[in-house]
Fold:
Amino acid sequence: MVGPVVLFGGPYSNLQATRAVLEVAQARGAVPICTGDVVAYCGRPQETIAAIRDAGCAVVAGNCELQLARGALDCGCGFEDGSACDLLSVAWYAYASARVQEADRAWMADMPDILSFEHGGRRYAVLHGALSDVARFLWSTSPASEFETEWDLVEQAIGPVTCIVAGHSGIPFVRHLSRGDWINAGVVGMPPHDGTARTRYAVLEDGQVSLHALDYDVDAAVADMQAAGLIHGYDKALKTGYWPSEDVLPSELRVSSRASG
Structure:
């Protein structure tokens, strides 16, 4: 690819944030690429799908796409059974699944698990969580060995790469490893648990990656969730910037741990 690339994950049925990041890509003359989970927590699943498809945005399959394509009964997010995140997922997933049309399920079923492109002299792979498990959580604090294991699997599948772009965990980071950079582009549909309402995306330009905050109409997104009856905690998270539960996070990334420390 020549020119900038906008990388983002987790539109999460947040129509306003999705439109905002696509507008950023258009204004930059950039190619948009999504790391999956187009549909999830928020109130406008069908319209968010339409926005992504109308933009011609490339998308790799996230766990939500795989589950919706199969007609599964849960999101397959990798939450521990009985955890707060697991219990909260019941309502939003049922709402989303009831509204996704069959043509869009077929579109999801055709999504690749991994894609690659060249940019600025580097070869990039794009996936959702990890190649071993689409819903695997890899954090900025995860052991280097976990990234190396996934890097091996990627190169076995598609050959040598310089960088890997992923999503799923919801918190952006760039991890410098011996073989290259692991880039989590963040998600646009939900704040990264940092106390601000702005969400995140990444930009590749001139061979460099940078992480950016996304401003969008948060009030409208919250209103959509409230109108849909999705008022179990993620609606508040859009404004407060804090997730309704930290049980999916490693201890060192929990706000409660930092506060008590």
User: Anything to note?
Assistant: The two ends are 45 Å apart (CA to CA). The chain has a mean pLDDT of 94. The longest strand covers residues 199-205. The CA atoms of residues 67 and 120 lie 35 Å apart.
